[in-house]
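step: validate -> pass
step: tokenize input -> pass
step: predict -> running
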Amino acid sequence: MKLPTMLKRPSAFIPLAMSAAALVVVLVSMAMFGAAHESDEGAAAHLWQLFVAGQLPVVAFFAIKWLPRAPWSAFQVLGLQAVTLLAALSPVYFLDL
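step: predict -> pass
step: emit ->
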């Protein structure tokens, strides 16, 4: 199965969308409020945590279902999912949010 066909599967593109949404939440929050360190986490931090943690079961389902059927395409999608997750994690790590 080719990569574009594989990316049409919900279990393939939902984690990508969730990582992108997590990144957007962080960027919008920083644009609106700055990178202030508050004692209480706000709604943006909770949304980010839900997006990041919520995609893990979907990624696991995708890996269990598609690695045996189409290993090369599945590894490509898993790599894309890992890259987008790292993109969502990087502002939090590098800006110490």
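step: describe -> Residues 15-28+43-97 form one domain.
step: cleanup -> pass
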